[in-house]
Amino acid sequence: MAEDDDDLILSDLPDEELVPQMHDDLYDGLKDEVVEGVEILLERGWTPYRVLTEALVAGMTIVGNDFRDGILFVPEVLLAANAMKAGMGILKPLLVETGAPKLGKMVIGTVKGDIHDIGKNLVSMMMEGAGFEVVDLGINTDVDEYLGALEKERPDILGMSALLTTTMPYMKVVIDTLTEKGLRDDYIVLVGGAPLNEEFGRAIGADAYCRDAAVAVETAKAFVARKHNQAAAG
Ligand code: B1M
Q1: What sign does the CA torsion over 15, 60, 201, 89 have?
Q2: Whose CA is nearest to atom 29 of ligand 1?
Q3: Which site from 39, 75, 130, 214 is most exposed, i.e. has the minimal number of CB atoms within 10 Å?
Q4: Is domain 2-98 annotated with CATH 1.10.8.60?
């Protein structure tokens, strides 16, 4: 951004100027400034979730739009993503702070061929914050890695993330493999990622498509409660 911003003292800005400034700083990949902005908002009493959605996710949406429109390119987007991750790093311990008993367990990973992990990380954070235990397999996860983790961890939920139209069909490969092995009904399968929708979720045989991290938490809670009720009744 412009050199005039060099002298900008973020803590002097009121919230309504600080947040757009943080969007600019995220856009410019200014990690330290994004972290500082996050800390200032927290000190001002913002909830971690509000900082996450209004300052970070909203800023990343602007980055995404300009990436789509050919205004930003991969190196710039990587810098923005790193700044976003640094900000999320501050929020994570606050979002996952919970003394509540575990509601259930989820194994999650971004599918094979796909290295986008910001959304998945956000879902993991929010799920942990809501009281789920999360085992994160990372990016570029192939079917054997998913199956190995399911066998080892015995989670209630399998979560898959994909951000590319070319990688989202891999979710079906994983679900079909579970079906072939007679394991499909052992897990609640939740999928998400920007190019997906409900229809796609249904078509590949997932239990639900989750539009965002908050929906993922609500959906997970509802399915796990249903599973426990069925187990109690059966
Ligand atoms: Co990429 N990229 N990217 N990228 N990138 C997109 C996805 C794209 C839409 C940009 C665009 O053109 N507008 C486009 C895909 C087009 C398409 O497939 N139709 C694209 C492309 C093309 C590419 C490359 C191919 C570019 C290239 O190399 N030419 C390449 C692919 C590399 C690969 O994966 N093999 C690539 C690379 C990258 C970077 C490395 C630079 C970086 C990723 C850094 C990282 O993740 N560590 C990057 C980024 C940052 C983006 C955008 C700009 C932002 C994604 C993001 O983090 N969003 C993205 C544009 C966009 O999405 N508008 C784009 C913020 C995040 C909070 O949202 O991930 O949607 P999201 O997650 C949400 C929900 O979707 C949901 O909850 C989350 C939180 O609310 N959700 C789940 C997600 N996963 C879930 C799982 C669940 C539940 C909910 O399980 C239960």
Answers
A1: negative
A2: 74
A3: 75
A4: no
